[in-house]
Amino acid sequence: MSDTAHGLTTGAVARHLGVSPTTLRSWDQRYGIGPAAREDGRHRRWTAGDVAVLDEMCRLTASGVPPAEAARVARAGRGRPIPVPAAARPPQREPDGGLPTGDVRRGLARAAVRLDGPTLDSLLRDAVASHGLVTAWEDVMVPTLHAVGRKWESSGDQYVEVEHLLSWHVSTALRQITPAGHGSVPDAPPVLLSCLPAEQHTLPLEALASGLAERGLPTRMLGAAVPAEALDAAVRRLGPAAVVLWSQARSTANHSLARHVAGRSFGVKGARTHPRVLLAGPGWAGRAVEAGMLRPGSLREALDVLARGYAEPTAGRGLSSARPVPR
C-alpha cells in the first residue's frame, strides 16, 4: 500500500484491510469512520491515522464485537489498541464462548489480507479451544485456506504472501496443540505420517498429527517430499502401526510405492506383520482401494480409524486387523 502527499485512496485502503470499498463507505455513513480529508470535496483520501482507526475496527469486529460498538471504541482510541469494555462483548457468541465458525472464517480472511499475524494467532487459538481441533480444521481452517487460494488464482498471482502467511499461522496453531500426557498406549508402535516424494502439502498431515497427539497416540512426522528410499527406511526401522501417505493431486499419488509400503513386513520370525496404509488426500481418488489399505474421507474418519486400531486387542501390533471403511 503506497502513500501519497494527499493520503490513500479508498481502493488502496480496502485492499489493505481485506474489505470492499462499499464496506468502507458504509462504515463512514453508519458509524462516522471516514477519511479526514476529501480532495476537492469529492475524492476520499485516508491518512495514516484514519487507517489506524480502521485497523482497530477490523481487529474488534474479527473478535466478535458488534460493528457499532467496535467503531465507537476505535474512534475513542484513534487507532490505539485498547481493552474492549465488557459491554461490548457480542451476545451472539455460542454457548462455549467461541465465535460461530462463519464469523471466524471471515475474521481470518480479513486478518490474512491485512497480514495481521497477531490476530490470526488469536482467532486460530480461539477456534481450536472453542470448537475442538476437527471442527476448527474442517469448518474454519480448510475453508479459509481454500478461499484465500481462490482469491490468489483469480487475481493474477496477487496475494501469494497472504496465502503463505495464513498457512504459516495455521501450522503454528496446529503444533501448539498439547499432547495428552505421554500417550495412552505406551510402548506401542507409532503412526508414520509422510508426503509422497513429489508432494509439498503438509498441513493436512500436521492436522492429523495434532489430532493423534490429542488422543495420546504416538506419531512420527516425516513431512514434505519424502524420497521413496527414506520412507522405506523409516518403515523398516520404526515398524509402525500404520503409515499415512498424503497426496494432494493425482500427479503425486504413487500407487506402486503405497503397495511396497503395505507389503513391508517386520517383527520377530514367525510373527512378522505389516503396517496398515492409509491413502489420505484427493490425489488418491479415482482408483479402487487395494487390500491392506484404507482411504479415509476426512480428518475425523482418519482419527477414528487409527484410534480404533490401538483400542483393539492387537493394538500392540497396530492396525493389522482393521477393516476397510465403507465408502
Overview of this protein structure:
The chain has 327 residues and is α/β, with parallel strands linked by helices. It has helices spanning 10-17, 21-31, 48-62, 67-77, 101-113, 117-131, 133-153, 160-175, 203-214, 228-238, 255-263, 299-311, and strands at residues 37-39, 43-45, 191-195, 219-223, 242-246, 276-280, 293-294. The strands form two sheets. Strands 4-3-5-6-7 form a five-stranded parallel sheet, sandwiched between helices. Strands 1-2 form a two-stranded antiparallel ribbon. Helix 9 links the parallel strand 3 and strand 4. Helix 3 packs across helix 4 (67-77) and helix 3 runs antiparallel to helix 5. The radius of gyration is 24 Å and the shape is elongated. Mean pLDDT is 80; it is low at 81-97 and 320-327.
What is the strand content? 5-15%
Structural class: alpha/beta
Which geometry do the CA atoms define?
A: elongated
For this structure, the quaternary state is: single chain
How many alpha or pi helices? Answer: 12
State mean pLDDT (0 to 100 scale).
80
**Unreliable residue stretches:** 81-97, 320-327
Strand order of the largest sheet: 4-3-5-6-7
* Rg over C-alpha atoms, rounded to the nearest angstrom: 24 Å
Give the key terms.
327 residues; five-stranded parallel β-sheet; two-stranded antiparallel ribbon; 12 helices; 9% strand; elongated; disordered C terminus
Write the layout of secondary structure elements.
Blueprint: H1 10-17, H2 21-31, E1 37-39, E2 43-45, H3 48-62, H4 67-77, H5 101-113, H6 117-131, H7 133-153, H8 160-175, E3 191-195, H9 203-214, E4 219-223, H10 228-238, E5 242-246, H11 255-263, E6 276-280, E7 293-294, H12 299-311
Parallel strand pairs: 3-4, 3-5, 5-6, 6-7
Antiparallel strand pairs: 1-2
Helix pairs in contact: 3-4, 3-5, 5-6, 5-7, 5-8, 6-7, 6-8, 7-8, 8-9, 9-12
